[in-house]
């Protein structure tokens, strides 16, 4: 074999050299004809400066081509990612309205600006929706024509060989004593064995490989559309709510049972999946030594649930990232805390209140705070109706008197202590204003005083009682329960979103690692009766391994049609010093999406 060549990297050219080069490339492209075209389904981009004067229809076409180009799609994706930044850093009304109000109170200067820019409702804002829709249209506008082009390519045969194979970027030739028909037959069998689509066209075998590259491109775009549609459906039809449940209590999946509930704009409350569950027991264990002391090791909520109104009870365990799934609705375990069981007696010694009161953790050792409210049934020693309120501070593991402040030393309930200070008066339950169940509104309440006139407060162990002054009654720390917080979510089309993500990764991998290339093998009898074999390859501009692949094919074919003995009389390559790069005959990569 002889006369094997491949193109060296091009050096930077001056403007006048680029003009000459471009003209030569156009001449080469015209000469190669169909052999150098349709290596990609991407549309060619047109420069605005090169366009003639356009009317309205012309401008619409130009705008459509720009919208469906790779450049604009990347810009839209970049804008979409930029738009998600304020949605991640700034509290959102759709997630937590209380945090939004707190943020507005702390940042009075920027909050009006954020309000006008819709930064508190990023994902439902006009500008975010516009980017989302434009990206969607861009992808659709790209996929439809490219799919048609690709299907046409699959139905057609590889184009015939150019007249001058020497002008292709990878080329080799040799002389053999085998007949041209034998060489072409051997080349056809070799190409098909290597999974090329091949056929005999005149005096040459035309073969092509790498169609899955374009299939990967289309799969990537279609997967992006599937993901966009899935996310849109998920936002429109989703429902999400939270519920705090104390051991022994239960939950039924109805709107009134939620502590907080959010849903998409098209969600129907009647579409909630009917089920219920009871928190039988919460089990939490923690690391007791070493550098990770206090780190949770076991976080399990043991529940009994039933599907539908009359479903058979079933046992299950909900763990972190291992939700309970009931007909597409997922119940996640979010948080855990303690609920001291307290009983309250009035001035006449009658028990008027007994319940497990959930307190909210304020640190990793489950130091907790909250409020105990006695709204009904309480009377003082004179029989007068009144209301009681207690500020509660709880630690599951108390260090002991004189051994630090009233903060927990460990998250497990090794030595639970409940600290209380009491108030009486009007709690404001019927004022018409929303109240936080974990905070005490003391504006219309009076503080209980001890015998010295100071604030009445006391630390209680389980079984201990705090007496209220002037025969006002007492409160007893009866025991300790645990609570768990659950998030109940219904997210439609989440499976489609996952499928789209997997498809996008697979399509992107195919479009990056599969190379589209064409190979031609020409066998003709020379004037001296010896067969001249020419092999040439053409690929996209990034097909750096094309010369190596062509060399491997040539070695395989040469074993069937060996080089003829005698002096080297192979035809010389085209004396034209300009070697054609694949990029001169393949569509520009910048036009592809």
From TrEMBL:
Residues 70-550 form the ResB-like domain. The chain crosses the membrane at residues 71-90, 126-145, 218-237, 495-514. One of its GO terms (cellular component) is membrane. Residues 10-30 have a biased composition (Basic and acidic residues). Residues 580-593 have a biased composition (Low complexity). Its main location: membrane. The keyword RNA-binding does not apply. Residues 1-41, 560-593 are annotated as: Disordered. Residues 569-579 have a biased composition (Acidic residues). Signal peptide: none annotated. It is found in: Membrane. Keywords: Cytochrome c-type biogenesis, Membrane, Transmembrane, Transmembrane helix. GO terms for biological process: cytochrome complex assembly. It is a multi-pass membrane protein. It comes from the Bacteria. This is Cytochrome c biogenesis protein. It comes from Streptomyces brevispora.
């Amino acid at each position: 074999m002889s006369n094997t060549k491949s193109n060296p990297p091009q050096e930077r050219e001056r403007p006048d050299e680029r003009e000459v080069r471009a003209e030569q490339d156009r001449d080469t492209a015209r000469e190669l004809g169909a052999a150098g075209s349709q290596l990609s389904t991407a549309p060619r981009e047109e420069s605005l400066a090169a366009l003639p004067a356009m009317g309205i229809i012309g401008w619409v076409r130009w705008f459509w081509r720009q919208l469906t180009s790779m450049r604009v799609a990347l810009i839209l994706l970049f804008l979409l990612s930029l738009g998600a930044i304020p949605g991640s850093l700034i509290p959102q009304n759709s997630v937590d309205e209380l945090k939004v109000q707190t943020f507005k109170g702390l940042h009075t200067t920027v909050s009006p600006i954020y309000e006008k820019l819709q930064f508190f409702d990023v994902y439902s804002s006009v500008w975010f929706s516009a980017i989302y829709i434009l990206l969607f249209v861009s992808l659709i506008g790209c996929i439809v024509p490219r799919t048609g082009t690709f299907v046409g390519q699959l139905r057609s045969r590889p184009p015939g060989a150019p007249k001058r194979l020497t002008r292709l970027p990878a080329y080799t030739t040799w002389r053999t004593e085998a007949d041209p028909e034998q060489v072409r037959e051997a080349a056809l069998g070799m190409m098909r064995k290597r999974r090329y689509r091949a056929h005999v066209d005149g005096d040459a075998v035309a073969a092509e490989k790498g169609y899955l590259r374009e299939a990967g491109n289309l799969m990537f775009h279609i997967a992006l559309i599937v993901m966009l549609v899935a996310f849109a459906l998920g936002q429109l039809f989703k429902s999400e709510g939270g519920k705090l449940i104390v051991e022994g209590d239960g939950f039924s999946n109805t709107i009134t049972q939620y502590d907080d509930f959010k849903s998409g704009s098209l969600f129907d409350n009647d579409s909630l999946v009917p089920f219920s569950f009871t928190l039988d027991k919460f089990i939490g264990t923690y690391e007791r030594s070493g550098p990770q002391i206090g780190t949770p090791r076991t976080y399990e909520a043991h529940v009994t649930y039933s599907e539908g109104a009359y479903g058979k009870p079933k046992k299950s365990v909900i763990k972190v990232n291992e939700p309970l799934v009931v007909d597409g609705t997922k119940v996640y375990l979010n948080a855990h805390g303690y609920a001291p069981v307290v009983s309250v007696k009035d001035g006449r010694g009658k028990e008027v209140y007994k319940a497990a009161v959930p307190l909210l953790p304020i640190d990793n050792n489950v130091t907790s705070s909250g409020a105990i409210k006695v709204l009904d049934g309480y009377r003082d020693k004179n029989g007068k109706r009144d209301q009681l309120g207690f500020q509660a501070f709880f630690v599951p593991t108390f260090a002991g008197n004189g051994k630090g402040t009233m903060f927990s030393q460990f998250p497990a309930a090794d030595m639970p202590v409940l600290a209380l200070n009491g108030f009486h008066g009007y709690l404001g339950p019927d004022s018409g204003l929303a109240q936080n169940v974990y905070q005490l509104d003391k504006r219309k309440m009076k503080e209980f005083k001890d015998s010295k006139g100071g604030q009445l407060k006391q630390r209680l162990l389980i079984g201990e009682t705090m007496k209220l002054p002037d025969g006002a009654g007492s409160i007893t720390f009866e025991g300790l329960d645990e609570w768990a917080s659950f998030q109940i979510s219904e997210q439609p089309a989440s499976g489609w979103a996952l499928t789209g993500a997997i498809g996008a990764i697979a399509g992107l991998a195919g479009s990056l690692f599969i190379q589209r290339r064409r190979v031609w093998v020409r066998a003709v009898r020379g004037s001296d009766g010896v067969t001249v074999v020419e092999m040439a390859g053409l690929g996209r501009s990034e097909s750096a391994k094309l010369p190596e692949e062509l060399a491997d094919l040539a070695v395989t074919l040469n074993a069937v049609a060996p080089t003829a003995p005698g002096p080297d009389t192979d035809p010389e390559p085209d004396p034209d010093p300009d070697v054609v790069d694949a990029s001169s005959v393949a569509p520009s990569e910048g036009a592809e999406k």
